[in-house]
Write a structure and sequence with these properties.
The protein is mainly alpha-helical. It contains six helices and two strands, in the order ββαααααα.
């Protein structure tokens, strides 16, 4: 038995890279740090999509938020831990709203991150209030 990247593989077991990767994902899917990073990526993808849709660049978004361009770059690179207040300000600057749901673990929430087309589709289906 060998351990590769903390995934146990039985001796003689042939594991393709995709299977090894899936085992790693399965192992960490309930890890709070992994979940938080996934949410940050999802939020960043949505923000970038809204910026593209509205024709807003980082400098313009910084002006709308009254922050530096460097701060916006940090946000969009995932180097900044967003607070709820910052997220609300960010969404308001993009003429959008924030929707958060806390659901029981037995219900799997389909994440949009990693699938930009799904994010775009969801955003285009959103109805104006």
């Amino acid at each position: 038995m060998t351990k590769s990247s903390d995934v146990t593989i039985q001796k003689g077991e042939s594991v393709r890279p995709a299977e090894r990767f899936q085992k790693l994902l399965d192992k960490y899917e309930d890890d709070p740090r992994y979940i938080a990073e996934g949410l940050l990526i999802e939020i960043n993808e949505q923000v970038v999509h809204l910026m593209e849709r509205k024709g807003i660049n980082r400098t313009q978004l910084a002006a709308l938020l009254d922050v530096s361009s460097a701060y916006v770059t940090k946000l969009l690179n995932g180097n900044e831990n967003l607070t709820i207040k910052q997220l609300v300000r960010l969404s308001a600057a993009l003429d959008s709203s924030v929707d958060v749901a806390i659901v029981p673990r037995q219900f799997k929430v389909k994440r949009l991150s990693g699938h930009p087309q799904e994010v775009r589709q969801a955003a285009s289906l959103a109805r104006p209030r």
